[in-house]
Write a structure and sequence with these properties.
Chain A: It is found in: Cell membrane. Chain A: The chain crosses the membrane at residues 21-47, 84-105, 117-137, 168-189, 225-246, 275-298. The structure holds 2 protein chains of 2 kinds. By secondary structure, chain A is mainly alpha-helical. Chain A has 13 helices and 2 strands. Chain A folds into 2 domains: 2-34; 74-297, MetI-like fold (Orthogonal Bundle), CATH 1.10.3720.10. Helices cover 73% and strands 1% of the residues of chain A. The longest helix of chain A has 47 residues, at 2-48. Chain A starts with a helix and ends in an 8-residue tail after the last helix. Chain B is of the alpha/beta class. Chain B folds into 2 domains: 23-133 and 293-361, Periplasmic binding protein-like II (D-Maltodextrin-Binding Protein, domain 2); 135-292 and 364-410, 3-Layer(aba) Sandwich (D-Maltodextrin-Binding Protein, domain 2). In chain B, strands 1, 2, 3, 6, 7, 8, 9, 10 and 11 form a 9-stranded mixed beta sheet that branches. Chain B has a two-stranded antiparallel ribbon with strand order 4-5. In chain B, strand 4 and strand 5 (124-125) form a beta hairpin. The longest helix of chain B has 20 residues, at 2-21. Classes of the chains: A mainly alpha, B alpha/beta. Chains A and B meet through helix 12 of A and helix 3 and helix 18 of B.
Amino acid sequence: MMTSSLTSTTRRSRLKRKSGWRGLVYIAPAMGLVTIFFVLPVLFTLWMSLHKWPLLGEPAWIGLRNYTRMFTDARFFNALGFTAHYTLIVTIAIFAVAFPLALFVEKQRPLVSLYRTIVFLPVVVGLASASLLWVWLANVDSGLFAPLFDMLGLTAGRINLLAKFDTAFMTIIVMVVWKIAGFTMIILLTGLQAIPTELTEAARIDGAGGWQRFRHLTLPLMRRTMALALILSVTGSILAFDQFYIMTSGGPQNKMISVVYYIFNQSFVSFNLGYGAALSIALLLILVTLSVVQLWLLKVGDERP
Amino acid sequence: MFTKLMAATALISASMISVASAETISMWVRSGIGDSFKEVVKAYNAAHENKVELTEVPFAELVQKYATAIAGGQAPDALSLDLIYTPAFAAAGQLEDLTDWAKALPYFNSLSPSHVKLGTYEDKIYGLPLTVETSIFAWNKDLYKKAGLDPEKAPATWEEITANAEKIRGLGGDTYGFYFSGGGCGGCMIFTFTPLTWGAGADILSADGKTATLDTPQMRKAVDIYRNMIAKDLVPAGAASDNGVNFLSFTNGKIGQQSLGAFAIGTLVTQHPEIDFGVTLIPGVDGKPSSFAGGDNFVVTKGTPKLADVKEFLEYTYSPEGQKIMAKYGSLPTRGDIANEVLEGLDPRLKVGLDAIAVAKTPYTLQFNDLINSANGPWATFTNAAIYGDDVDGAFADAQAEMQSIIDAGQ
């Protein structure tokens, strides 16, 4: 009795260990890829960040000096401030557009796939190509917006949208919403479609109005989807670079330097690869923190809805 | 079988030796400086056993690509490097010392002095002039005529230029009196705008390059001249966000006057024969003209095994034949002693570009990219903020402080 139970436990644990090894084998390719393309580069970046690492010449060990320099670097804080400002505004704008669109295309109605396709179409354009397209649209002489606004009487004469911060920023926000909202819409749509119709019906029978159903049924059930869409949008916005580089070259008067743009400038314009690496590590930490906070706020780990 | 194999091997190695005796030199050139270097390479390849293999690299990426190529051991044997970057690469110890060979050239003393100065680092010569480029002032003679101005009279002061611009703008529509790339194009503005202050004896950096001296009465006056023209609507609205892409707007025939590079004379003559234009030196704020001497230096990557062949090629470009080809395609002669002979029979307006060399200046600094050329550097930002912004004093103070901090950080 005693021995048999003992053998059975050892067998079970051996079995368990065996299946553990099998599991590892299954995930090995994925782990290999993650190691080669994420873990090792991050470790190397960390190593570089502890050096004065010019593009030409020999790297020199300087310990944490790149990190201490960061705290007195006003341009870095400007870039952080601008990135935060941009992320906040563009995320709100994207959700403000994508949520109504998702509600609109969720219901079966005539031509619904056409609407979905139209809204999703800009998503398949690359961000760099979209930026180039909008540079032309916003061009004061040969573009579309300035002559159009002039013709409609919205502006007195043609105005150069990209010459002033406010109008240039607005143009970029509209461009990004046009480009990204379709993607967020699709994510939200999957969340909406996952809500069982019985629940909505039950709520309706209980006499809940449209707003009440949205507030107490749809929103809580969409928490996970919202978390995904929010994290994707926030992360994407914090890493924004192409649109500023292509549409305004960081201008007017350097007011549109995002963090990634600043890292790019430090690394490949000023050739301070070590400092650029340190800034990248700092950005990575910021992103991880923000993602954890967002997951916690939306209580995604919590199993019960 | 064995003998056959031996014979084949011998044949192959023999052919390899014969290939090796005619060397192929790999060389880079940046885009956007016209065809002169490409044409001289073509002529060299046709007449010599050695061949030059030329790779064109986009101008904005050349420095970065060359630096990464050196780091990766893939650098070309030699390249045509924007002369303002020569000090930085020489200081980094990446260029071959050409001092002895250069000083032995019989015409060494007549080579463009600005180029040689920038090619010299700690008394050793690392770069020699390849293409010479100066900034000049151009006006559209047809528009002058239409506006009732004397098309043959070159404006000599900025008051005159502004008055002429007003008359040309008076033609209405999309005809404008003046143009410049004002959207934070540091390279364009150092090239065309600083001559206004140089002519009047001021500079944006001290002679040793260690102090930023941006805030001068001359610079204030120059900024006022441009601001005034914008306030009077003499400049197209697109200029405010032009980061250099439309630098050659003058070629559209609707711009009355613009400061350009001498290379543009070649472009206008060969590609826009319909535009009748005149050229003169860029007046300073007090009327005394100046110019930016730019262009490329010829530099050799340190440790190249083909040094002798590279020197042979450079001697060819300095020969009267090579100089003539370069000039024909828009690059001014680098050898002062035969300049007049080289320009004989070519467009007479190129002569103005050559005259500019005598009054031209080039700022000497190891941090040219950071300070001046970078679209996000203090100079590029300053030009847009001071000329288009609402706070001129703030623009001066910010740029002065940031330039100084970049200089100090680099010491």
